[in-house]
């Protein structure tokens, strides 16, 4: 009789253990579904911003540009109305400037620095206060090198930038987790703008960025 009781106990323990393992596996699977991340490798976003250069005579010459993303492929970017105060994504970049190269009325500068894109649900950005464009949560950081060209006749600006992602992480898009690109991937930026020297701001610009 004692042997029978022992055998039954062993069977119950074995069955209970199997159920526990099965339940754990099911929960893990569900958790995995919740954690699914959509990686947007084909990046495409549009930007609206302003820039500010350091005062004349400051060495090294520094530069910041900041603003908001007016459109991001696959992600909702605005509340209502559509402006900096309702933008859900902002950016802030800083860098150093090379000596100016002149060619007639054209002036060219090369800059290197870091661009950070923020997820900012607070929607409190204000061009009168550049720091409000970097008070969100960083979702992408990239190292950039750009060439800006401006006309001394019209004040018109054009800019090309190549960026390499050094950090990116998922964020809640409202329709699941999304991640903008992967570390090591590259994208280019293209801006058109207008000088406003000495400012502030030093310039206004609108542009876009796309994967290489």
- Tell me the series of helices and strands, N- to C-terminal: HEEEEEEEEEEEE
- Number of distinct helices: 1
CATH C-level label of the largest domain = Mainly Beta
Provide the number of structural domains: 2
Distance between the termini: 77 Å
Task: Return the CATH architecture of the largest domain.
Answer: Beta Barrel
List unreliable stretches of 5+ residues. 1-32
Instruction: Output mean pLDDT.
Output: 83
- Range of helix content: 10-25%
What this model shows, in words?
This protein has an 8-stranded antiparallel β-barrel with strand order 2-3-4-6-7-8-11-12. Strands 1-10-9 form a 3-stranded mixed beta sheet, with no helix packed on it. It contains 1 helix and 12 strands, in the order αββββββββββββ. The chain is globular and about 55 Å long. With 212 residues, the protein is of the alpha+beta class. β5 (101-103) and β6 form a beta hairpin. The chain has one helix spanning 2-34; strands at 37-40, 44-53, 62-72, 89-97, 101-103, 106-119, 137-151, 156-168, 171-172, 177-180, 186-195, 203-211. The longest helix has 33 residues, at 2-34. It has 2 domains: 1-35; 36-211, Porin (Beta Barrel), CATH 2.40.160.
Task: Summarize, please.
The chain has 212 residues and is an alpha+beta fold.
Main attributes of the structure:
Porin, 3-stranded mixed sheet, 8-stranded antiparallel beta barrel, 212 residues
SSE layout and pairings?
Blueprint: H1 2-34, E1 37-40, E2 44-53, E3 62-72, E4 89-97, E5 101-103, E6 106-119, E7 137-151, E8 156-168, E9 171-172, E10 177-180, E11 186-195, E12 203-211
Parallel strand pairs: 1-10
Antiparallel strand pairs: 2-3, 2-12, 3-4, 4-6, 5-6, 6-7, 7-8, 8-11, 9-10, 11-12
């Amino acid at each position: 009789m004692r042997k029978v009781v022992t055998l039954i106990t062993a069977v119950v323990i074995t069955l209970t253990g199997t159920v526990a393992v099965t339940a754990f596996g099911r929960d893990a699977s569900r958790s995995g579904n919740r954690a699914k991340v959509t990686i947007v490798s084909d990046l495409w976003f549009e930007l609206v911003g302003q820039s500010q250069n350091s005062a004349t005579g400051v060495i090294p010459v520094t530069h910041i540009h900041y603003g908001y993303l007016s459109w991001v492929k696959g992600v909702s970017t605005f509340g209502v109305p559509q402006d900096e105060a309702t933008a859900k994504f902002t950016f802030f970049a800083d860098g150093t400037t090379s000596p100016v190269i002149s060619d007639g009325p054209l002036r060219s500068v090369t800059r290197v620095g870091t661009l950070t894109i923020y997820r900012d649900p607070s929607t409190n950005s204000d061009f009168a206060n550049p720091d409000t464009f970097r008070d969100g949560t960083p979702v992408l950081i990239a190292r950039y090198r750009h060439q800006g060209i401006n006309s001394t006749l019209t004040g018109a600006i054009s800019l090309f930038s190549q960026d390499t992602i050094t950090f990116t992480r998922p964020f809640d898009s409202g329709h699941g987790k999304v991640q903008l690109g992967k570390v090591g991937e590259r994208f280019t930026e293209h801006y058109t703008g207008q000088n406003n020297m000495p400012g502030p701001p030093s310039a206004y610009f609108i542009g876009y960025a796309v994967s290489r």
